[in-house]
Amino acid sequence: MFAGQEAFKCMANCLDNEALEGAALDRCSRRCTELLERVKHAVEHDMNELQERVSRGVQLCNDQATDMLGERSEPDPAMRERAEKFADECAAKSLKSHTSFISAIQQRVSRIVE
C-alpha cells in the first residue's frame, strides 16, 4: 500500500483511540509519519546529489567550450557556433549519463518503503 495512505490511516487510528492523550497521542502520530519522513529525506538527499552532479557536468562542458574559443576578444561566428554546439552536445551526454542515478533513487525509496 502507498506509504501516504498508510500514514493517514495510522493517524486516524491514533485519533480514534480515546485512550491516547497528550504525549502518547503525539508519539503515536509521530510513529505514523516516520516512514514518510525517511522517504522525504532520502529523496531530498539524492535529488540534491543529482543536481550537483548535473551542474558540475554542465559547468565542465561550458568550461571546455570556453576554452575552445581561446583568448580572442571576438571569436569568429563559425568558431562560436562550434563551441556552442559542443557545449550543447556535451551537456546532453552529461545529463544522459546521470539517468541511471534516477532509477537508483527509485530503488532506494522502494527499499525504504518495504
From TrEMBL:
| An example Gene Ontology CC term for this record | cytoplasm
- Kindly name one Pfam family recorded for this protein: DUF842
Origin: domain of life: Eukaryota
| InterPro entries hit by this protein | DUF842_euk
Recorded family membership: Belongs to the FAM136 family.
Q: What is this protein called?
A: Uncharacterized protein
What organism is this sequence from?
A: Spongospora subterranea
